[in-house]
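For the sake of clarity, the format in which proteins appear in this thesis is described at this point. The fold follows as a row of integers, each naming the local backbone shape at the matching residue. One such record is shown here in full, so that the layout can be seen directly:
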Amino acid sequence: MDRSALTVSLYVPDVAAAMAFYTGILGFTHSGSWNEDGRPIWAEVARDGPKGTARIWFFCHAVEDRPGPAFSGLIYLFVEDVRAEAERLDGRAKVRWGPEDQPYGLRELGVEDPHGYLLCFAQDI
């Protein structure tokens, strides 16, 4: 299995649903999984972009005392063309903002996944 310099690992109650959204809607590729009793309990998705390969792992067993998905930040995914992503995702994903140009030199599109995590498609402008 290939590795990236940074891989985000997210708790989700339904790994199959996460994989379906990220591969079917967001354009990631399913690159690995482990099953238990016929259902995925861990999976990896990946997507190549202008700054390298982004990888996200999903797992369904809660960590320590965390009752559900929790993440206070944004997951940035750099792409060639944010406006093209916005057109492709129109009506297919919950868009939270954008596309909009930020004063810090990025064009951004914020999307919420089915488990409440926020992804920001971004490009340098």
Remarks:
- The first strand starts at residue 7 and ends at 11.
- The mean pLDDT is 91.
- The chain has one domain: 7-61+73-124.
- DSSP finds two helices and eight strands in the chain.
